[in-house]
Amino acid sequence: MENKKTVVIGVCGGIAVYKVLDIISALKKKNVNIHVIMTEAATEFVSPLSFQTMSQNLVSTDMFVEPKAWEIQHISLAQKADAMLIVPATANFIGKVSNGIADDLLTTTVMATKAPVLVAPAMNTGMYTNSILQENIARLRVHGFKFIDPAEGRLACGDTGIGKLADTEEICDCVMKELYDIKDLKGKKVLVTAGPTIAPIDPVRYITNRSSGKMGYAIAEEAAYRGAEVVLVSGPSHIKPPYGVELINVKTTGDMYNAVTSRFGEADIVIKAAAVADYKPKTYSDAKIKKASSDLAIEFVKDFDILKKLGEMKTNQILVGFAAESHDLLENAQGKLEKKNLDYIVANDITKTGFATDDNKVTILRRDGDPIYLESMAKRNVARELFNIILKNRE
Ligand code: CTP
């Protein structure tokens, strides 16, 4: 992110208060400037000094305190914020704001700000599921407040159920997504595939390839940050799915074929970063293949070429493929662009950039223009450049 952004964090009085210190620390690492407003109840749990130390800014607690500088605090903080995050949000805070009550520094700041407000509730299950609270949440959603829903788990009161503050990582992802400047994919539906597929041999064995899924997941995240509705069809991968993306897990090439062809019609942009297994064993053995005295030969047959099928189905979609090549990079990639009826193909030389790396060096070939040679860069930046090119923001 180019410009340093400011997040005003409103901390309410709930036992999850102590987790906010981790959230601040994670956001500071991402170069975000943090100001904290604590409600009076929050100061009963943790001293403002902890938040002051962590945020490296003075913590505001009281509207009527002697000002440290001449500015009206709730207005200046409301204006400073690129986003506000209320965490943990209590039933009391939600109830007040949804009814237009502004009786302390936090609620007046929320009322005054034009920045997006993210609300991460945490409370006892009974309180969270209470219909009055749910009505208040629904009302705030209508007014543009965004909620980071609590998780299920063991709560501080000893109950088990919904009401646990969302994960620190999830909360930070939501904030970073909100702060992202480019929103040029708003209203667009993006379908991305990632990872390898597998071809099972018997109940215990399969063949696959070395794809980690990193490139596809980076594309899905970039698209979501830019405002798209994203469906990510992923083969087996250990990567955490990006926040706000619909994930469809698949295993075989056939599974991926079914998932992708069924969602293709609704998509505006389709990016096939997956390393699809081209062949599968001619027969799958239901029983485990036992070791014999002779060698083992397995006959393979061709599986679906998903991208080729999409090229045939294509109506208005922008279709993007990947080409991982060990030789004749541009010729092979150009051949795939034409054969599979693509608009773009991202070519990379696997002898130079291996699998599961964080960086990638690619050349992007276009149906209507010269190839674009990119330097080696983080996969997330490759994803950013790719969308810039697709959306013609870059020549
Ligand atoms: N692809 C696909 N289905 C396949 C094979 C590939 O959808 N069965 C897609 C990949 O997701 C990628 C593009 O086609 O976007 C090119 O994949 P690649 O493996 O480089 O090419 P292949 O067509 O499989 O040709 P080859 O393996 O001979 O290079």
Characterise this structure.
The chain has 395 residues and is an alpha/beta fold. It folds into 2 domains: 5-179, Rossmann fold; 189-394, 3-Layer(aba) Sandwich (Rossmann fold). Helices cover 34% and strands 25% of the residues. The chain has helices at residues 19-29, 40-45, 48-55, 73-80, 91-98, 105-112, 125-129, 131-142, 168-179, 214-225, 253-264, 306-313, 329-339, 379-390; strands at residues 5-11, 32-38, 83-89, 117-121, 146-147, 151-154, 160-164, 189-194, 199-202, 205-207, 229-234, 246-249, 269-272, 279-281, 300-302, 318-325, 344-349, 359-360, 362-366, 369-373, 377-378. An 8-stranded mixed sheet has the order 12-11-8-13-16-17-19-20, with helices on both faces. α11 packs parallel to α12. It is elongated. The mean pLDDT is 94. The structure holds cytidine-5'-triphosphate (CTP). Cytidine-5'-triphosphate binds at residues 253, 272, 274, 276, 278, 303-307, 321-324, 336.
CA-atom Rg in angstroms = 25 Å
Mean pLDDT: 94
Main sheet properties: 8 strands, mixed
Query: Regarding CATH, which class of the largest domain?
Result: Alpha Beta
N- to C-terminal distance: 22 Å
- Please give the domain count: 2
Query: What is bound: which ligands?
Result: cytidine-5'-triphosphate
Poorly predicted regions: none
The second-level CATH architecture of the largest domain is 3-Layer(aba) Sandwich
